[in-house]
Amino acid sequence: MRRFWNWVTGADGGRTLYLDGPIASESWWGDEITPAIFKEELGASNHDITIWINSPGGDVFAGAQIYNMLQEYPGKITVKIDGNAASIASVIAMAGDEVLMSPISTIVIHNPETIAFGDETEMSRVKDMLSEIKEAIINAYELKTKLTRTRISHLMDEESWMNVKTAMDLGFADGMLYDNAGADGNPVYNSVLFSKKEMAATLLKKLMPPQDLNKQNAPAEKPAGVQISALYTRLFQLNNKTEVL
Predict the structure, then answer these.
(1) In the CATH scheme, what is the homologous superfamily, with its name and number, of domain 5-199?
(2) What is the pTM (predicted TM-score) of this model?
(3) Which of 32, 63, 72, 221 could cross-link with 88 by S-S, CB 3.0 to 4.6 Å?
C-alpha cells in the first residue's frame, strides 16, 4: 500500500509523523481500511507528537479526516512546515497546538477546486458543494487565526502564498524554526503576502511590448493607397463589364 505518511519513534518515546507529498485519494480511499490504519497508528500512544509537513495538498475529504483525528489526539501536537503546506495540507497544519515554519517554507491557501461535467442543474450542485466546502475550510482557519471569515475568504479568493512572517502576522503560524535573532535581540524577518492572480497580471504587463514614447506624440503616418481617380476608373469598368488591356 503506497502511503503519504510515515511514523518515526524516537528513543524517548516521542513520535514524529512525516506528511510528504500529495494527500492522495488513491492511497486513502482506494482501500476502506486505510483511514482506520492511520487512526490506529496515531492512537498507538498518547505521547506528544511532531508533524513535519511538505505537501501540495490533495484530496479535501482525506485531509478533513486527518485534521479531525489530530484534533481528537490527547497529546500535544507540534507542526513543523519545512517546505510547502498548500491547500488541504495547510488545513491539516491548523490542527497543531503550535505551528512552526522554516524561514524558507510557505503556506498556501486557496478556494477548493474540482472537475465536473453535466447539465446546468448538476453544475449548480457542484457550485453549491464547493461553496460549502470553502465554508468548512474557513472554519479551521478561523479557529487558528481568529481572523474574520470575510478576510479569510478574500485570502482564499486570491490564492495567497505566505512566508513565515506573513503567516505569523495573520495567525497561521506561531513561530519560525532556526530563529536567528538580530542585533537588537528581535528576529529578522521579511514579510511577503503573494497573490498568484496579482503576480500573473504584473507579469503580463511586463511581457507586453514597451510603448515608443517618441511615436506617441508624432502625427499619424499617411496610409499607403491609390489615387481616387484610379478607383473611379475601375468602378466604371466593372459597371460596364469592359476589359482593359
Answers:
(1) 2-enoyl-CoA Hydratase; Chain A, domain 1 (3.90.226.10)
(2) 0.74
(3) 63
